[in-house]
């Protein structure tokens, strides 16, 4: 069945190109996600595949197109 979905697809933008390793987070998802600690908006870093909370000083990873919004999984912004 072509064109069907299972509901398990990653929340990535339909314009991304997985063949080039390029993934973009769905802009609608970015609008509703906030930092779980500060409840402030997040910035999307497409190159590093992270959601940045400047207020908390944390970068939440995006793995396989899924934002991991757990503070214990986040990278401190001063870390590289």
Report the mean per-residue pLDDT as an integer: 81
- Straight-line distance between termini: 44 Å
Instruction: Give the uncertain stretches in residue-range form.
Output: 1-10, 14-20
Percentage of helical residues?
A: under 10%
Instruction: Give the number of helices.
Output: 1
- Sheet of most strands: 5 strands, antiparallel
Order of helices and strands: HEEEEE
Principal-axes shape call = globular
What is the SS-derived class? mainly beta
C-alpha-based Rg, rounded: 14 Å
Extended strand count: 5
User: What fraction of the residues are assigned to beta strands by DSSP?
Assistant: 15-25%
Short summary of the structure?
The protein is mostly beta strands. 8% of the residues lie in helices and 21% in strands. Strands 1, 2, 3, 4 and 5 form a five-stranded antiparallel β-sheet that branches.
Outline the secondary-structure elements:
Elements: H1 27-32, E1 43-45, E2 50-53, E3 58-63, E4 66-67, E5 75-76
Antiparallel strand pairs: 1-2, 2-3, 3-4, 3-5
């Amino acid at each position: 069945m072509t064109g069907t979905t299972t509901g398990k697809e990653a929340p990535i933008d339909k314009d991304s190109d997985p063949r080039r390793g390029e993934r973009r987070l769905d802009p609608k998802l970015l609008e509703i996600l906030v930092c779980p600690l500060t409840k402030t908006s997040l910035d999307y870093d497409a190159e590093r595949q992270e959601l940045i909370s400047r207020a908390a000083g944390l970068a939440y990873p995006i793995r396989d197109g899924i934002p991991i919004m757990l503070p214990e999984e986040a990278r401190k912004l001063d870390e590289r």
